[in-house]
Amino acid sequence: MSESDNQSQKNEFDTPWKEILRTHFEDFLAFFLPEAHDGIEWRRGYEFLDKELASIAREAEIGDRRMDKLVKVYQKDGVEYWVVIHVEIQGGREANYPERMFTYNYRTYDIKKRPVVSLAVLADDDINWRPTEYGYELWGTRVGFRFTAIKLLDYSEADLERSSNPFAVVVQAHLQAKKTKGKTEDRYQAKWKLIRSLYQRGYDRQKVIDLFRFIDWVLHLPREADERLMAEIVALEEDKKMPYISSVERIGEERGVLKGIEIGEQRGEKKGKADTLTRQLQRRFGDLPPWASQKIADADLATLENWSLRILDAPTLESVLADPS
User: Fold this and answer.
1) DSSP state of 147
2) Is 192 in the same domain as 99?
């Protein structure tokens, strides 16, 4: 799979996965890592540590981290723990993936001095790619790291249908999205079946809506098929007297909300990179002239990252901010 195809898959799945993981984190752990779920004191709550994770990734020079999550939880004995969640949406093997998991783990432990649990959810298409370990050995010194990796391809349709956990539906939708890509009628039938199942599994209204958002995003249909499906949903809800989905201001608005979140996060990342670059330049070259500040403000994220790599070697401010060749 080409790099552009790989990036396209990330864009297709990143936002809905991120939202459903954040809104239903307890269900997420119950489904993918029940041992951890059972050991957590959920009454004390949990906290997503996005800023801390961004700092760790930046200092460790880790690249794409959009799907990574760092969560603070409490064990039932009151001890504070840290859970690193990495959902990998990609089309094949990545040579440095185990090393990246290792880096997250030891950098988090180094900073927080708390046990760190690492979980990888592998949502790719390569059944044989199953990274779980990283280590090295030299002259009597041996370093070893093992993490839990969950392969979505391992789940059977029968097991997913029997499960009442909402992430069974998430996995079904993800796998069907890959299976039915380019097959409108097959996708229509798969999507309709999944939506019907939301009412059969006994979920409350908010959970139905959240799962519908995920299904609707990843199993996108052409407009005509989409309108036909919506008519079936309305009829179903009238029959069951459960106006859940049809009471929401529909797909366009829901997708707009999710896309807005994604765009907002990208803008936030760009602003953070621009602020860091500005401080680094000021430390080396003094106050920045207006042209330099404007150029930084107008640059995209890739350009900002390129400039940040030049700071140590470039002799002048102009050479740092030169347009990429």
Assistant:
1) -
2) no
